[in-house]
Amino acid sequence: MIIKPRIRGFVCITAHPEGCAAKVAHEIAVARAAKQAGGPKRVLVIGASTGYGLSTRIAAAFGHEAATFGVFFERPSMKGKPASAGWYNSVAFEKAAHAEGLYAKSINGDAFSNEIKAQTIETLKADLGQVDLVVYSLASPRRTDPKDGETYKSCLKPTEGSYHNRSLDTDKGEVTEVTIEPATQEEIDHTVKVMGGEDWELWMQALAEADCLAEGAKSVAYSYIGPEITWPVYTNGTIGAAKKDVERAAAAISTAHRCEAYVAVNKAVVTQASSAIPVVPLYISILFKIMKAKGTHEDCIEQMVRLLNERLYRADNAAPELDDTGRIRIDDWEMDPTVQAEIAAIWPGIDSANLRERSDFDGYQANFLNLFGFGLPSVDYEAEAEVDLPLPSAGQ
Ligand code: NAD
Question: How far away, in angstroms, is 384 Cα from ligand 1 center?
């Protein structure tokens, strides 16, 4: 079928298989160009199909020749409709990895469930024995706790009074105003339940009990801090409470399983998760303009290459430098005070009329479309595309 983007708010409900493959091929080329000896050899990525998880998988496989196992929750093609972008990304990734002779298998299902953990561990034990890196990169709006079957929902709200700021209607390209009322204690607790560290701990415990963690194994989960303008709704909001819990979990995992568990603070990028956060798309549009002008602009793959090569698996084998609360900082170029000062100067005067001049909103939109495989110059979008693509590792 001929597939066109169909955008509904901050999601695109269609995806293009060849466009997704072209984007994966681009990320593979970036990882290959940064190839470095050493590094992880057997990697489990939880949340491996889009955004930071996909890029970590690509950086490990094509930058370090690692065998990778990916867990994700994506929609295959049904009744002739396109699959989700993460499905097509994973098909393209596995094909490229297999062509290179690299082990790559994936499981599509709910990572929060006991069943998917058990299936993953069974395959890992049979195929790889143990893993030396576990990447935890889930971003989900809900989680069903396997202990009691209760489903919790996360929300993006401030916790200390209502929050008012500029935001961006990315559909219309209009700068708007947004007011968000503070979360209740229950909403904070539920967001921690979904996006906090509990599930990461359950994964690490299950892997340790099954003797799947190699001696000296590392694990990493991702966090974000960002600029003060977003602190009320991010760092000091419900999601920030969850991220604090991820930091707690990192320390608990390191102690309990004698492995190195880290929180890496990554930069703001356009992903399906970040486009849903109020205020953040406007901030990212300004950030892109400034970082592109400075030559420090990065997308997920450049970030994850730096995380592996310059932090987790340094050529000199040194331990990663940590900030004063023990986190790896790969958001260093975003948080550069000169970058932040320029954003702070632009922020108060930005409006719908000057949006394209004072920010890289066009770049933001192009990046958003790319997430779903649209807008890639090498793809003929007028041509028929095969939508029903199986995962190469399915049934292996
Ligand atoms: P994303 O939406 O691109 O990816 C989320 C991944 O989680 C996908 O692979 C999806 O399939 C998987 N997933 C979701 N629910 C699942 C479930 N129930 N079972 C199995 N898989 C499931 O998100 P992202 O932006 O790459 O976020 C990943 C992590 O990086 C998050 O912790 C996020 O907070 C963090 N982070 C993001 C940014 C940013 O700007 N996007 C910045 C810093 C840190």
Answer: 30
Residue 180 and residue 210: Cα distance in Å, rounded?
44
Closest residue CA from atom 24 of ligand 1: 51
Residue 396 has pLDDT above 90, yes or no: no
> By C-alpha distance, which of 77, 41, 11 is closest to 387?
77
> Residues 111, 112, 116, 121: what is their CA dihedral angle, to the nearest 10 degrees?
90
Residue 364 pLDDT > 80, yes or no?
yes
Q: Is 234 annotated as catalytic? A: yes
Q: Determine which helix (DSSP H) or strand (DSSP E) holds 36, and give its type and residue range.
A: none
* DSSP 3-state of 146: coil
Q: CATH for 14-147+188-278+294-335+381-395? A: 3.40.50.720
What are the tens digits of pLDDT across the range 98-124?
999 999 999 999 999 999 999 999 999
Q: Confirm if 52 and 271 have CB atoms less than 8 A apart.
A: yes
Q: Which of 138, 233, 244, 262 maximizes ligand 1 atoms within 8 Å of its Cβ, making it the mutation to test the pocket?
A: 138
In which region does residue 69 sit, left (phi positive, over 0), alpha (psi from -120 to 50) or beta (all else)? Answer: beta
Name the residue of 10, 57, 73 to mutate for ligand 1: max ligand atoms within 8 A of Cβ.
73
| Mean pLDDT on 86-108 | 98
| CB neighbours of residue 346 within 10 Å | 16
Q: Which two tokens stand for residue 64?
A: 């370090």
Residue that is written with structure tokens 């370090």 in the block: 64
pLDDT in tens, 325-347: 999 999 999 999 999 999 999 99
CA distance 338 to 293: 12
CA dist 75 and 54 (Å) reads 16
The structure tokens listed for 140 are 């989900």
Residue 15 has pLDDT above 80, yes or no: yes
Catalytic residue among 234, 262, 283, 364: 234
Separation of alpha carbons 192 and 171, rounded Å: 30
| Cα–Cα separations (whole angstroms), residue 158 to 143, 186, 188, 309, 343 | 21, 13, 9, 35, 22
d(CA 114, CA 120): 10
